[in-house]
Every structure is written in C-alpha cells, then in structure tokens.
Amino acid sequence: MSYIEAIVLGIFQGVAEFLPISSSGHLSILQHLFGIKEGNLFFTQMLHFGTLISIVIVYFKDIKFIVIDFIKLIIDLARGKKIRELTKYQRLGLLIIIGSVPTAIIGIAFEDFFETLYTSLIPIGIALIFTGFLLWLSEKKGRETKDVKDVTFLDSIIIGVLQGFAIIPGISRSGSTIVAGLFRGLKKPLATEFSFLLALPATFGAFLLGMIKVTREDNQILVNGPLLIGIILSTVVGVISIKLLIRVLNKNKLHYFSYYLWVVGAITIITQLI
After folding, report:
1. In angstroms, what CA-CA distances link 15 with 47, 139, 148, 237?
2. Which pick of 69, 87, 113, 272 has the fewest CB atoms within 10 Å?
C-alpha cells in the first residue's frame, strides 16, 4: 500500500461513509470500472475504525452522558430501585439498543444475499437511484415535532430496519436512517444525531467481525506509515463530512445529493447495458 493509495482511500472512506451517497456502492463502482482496490482486509477495517472515531469525536458529550446515565440505570435496577421516569440519555441509550436489534438480525440473516449484489453494477446503480429518491422525498416530509421523550420504540425499530437494509451496496446508511427519522416526525437535529449514534454499535460490530476475519484468514497485518495516514485522514475527513451533512440538513438541501446519485446511478446502469 503506497502513501498515495492510503491518502485516496482514507479521504474516500471519510467522505462516502457519512455523506448520503453510499460508500459501498461507490467502492464497488471504482473496483469494477477502474480496477481500484480497497486494499488488504486489515487496512480496510482500520479505515472503518477511523470513521468510528469520527462519530465519537463529534458526539463525544452525548455518548459520555449516555454511557454514564445507562450505567446508573443498570445499577438502580440491580438494587431493585423503582424507576419512575428515564432520563433523556437513558431513553436515548435504550432506543439505540432497540434500533440495533433489527439491524443485526437483517445483517446476519441476509449476509449471503447482500454479498451477491456486489457481483454486478446494475443493482448497485438501481440502489443509488433509489437512495436519490429517498433523499428527494425527505423534502416532502411532515412536521418535525418529536424530541427524545416522544420517540417510540416503533420509531427506533423502523429506523433500525432501514439501517439493516442499507447494507445493500448503493443504499446510503446515513441517508436512509435520517430520512426514516424525519418521516417518523423526529426533529432534524435529533434525526441526524440518532442516525450517527445508531451507527456506533453497527459499525463497531462490523469492525470486530472484520478483525476476526482478518485473523482467521491469515491476512497481512502491517502497521506502517500509509496505514496511520489512512486512519488519520478517514477520521479527520469523517468529522468534516458529518458536520457538513448537519449543515446541509439544517438548510433543507439534502435533496442536492439526489441529483448526484441519479446521475451516477444512471451512468452506472448505462455503462453495463451498452
């Protein structure tokens, strides 16, 4: 892995992982059309680790309070204390756990099917166009009225289901979960925050499974300059991408990504049919 390749892949990971354009879909297109490879499996997993750090950096304060308050809740329950009302962060932590369940079930149950979708660019192009329509429809949503205390378990499950199916290459995880949150009436900042916090268990779980695969398949584990550069860039660019997406959402410009996805999806399909 050269420094140039590490820089390109680190930046790509940081941008595509968080902006609603589907990192898996774009990577597959690059691999098929231009022969660009993601690198060895260990390098790939470490780039994902970098983007995991990005979420922690941006939402560190909320994550800290969720962990602290949830530990307090567990201790109170263990002591037999009656819980009259959950705090904001206890409820948010519980919603994240509930939303992660359907994501995990879908990921495990349909893993083989999802992998077959990487063999052809046509379904990936279709998925990119579909993601574009999801983002465009987000501008037609209803009123955003729900705070954390108003979010139901059903809301969390629905968003978690969308996150599960975002494993399909071409379906954006951030785009689908944010749009699902908006359609369920979550206020825009909460829909965005919940989308990224919900990504933490899924991303960390995928990272652990990937590292297990690395050790089982005896992949090359090499800690060097390009790896460190890749991790740093995926982290830094990831932070920038998250903040950029938040700004775009606040300005009601999420549909801008739709036009890009429609063009890329159409070009992808056409190149395979010609």
Report:
1. 12, 23, 28, 6
2. 113
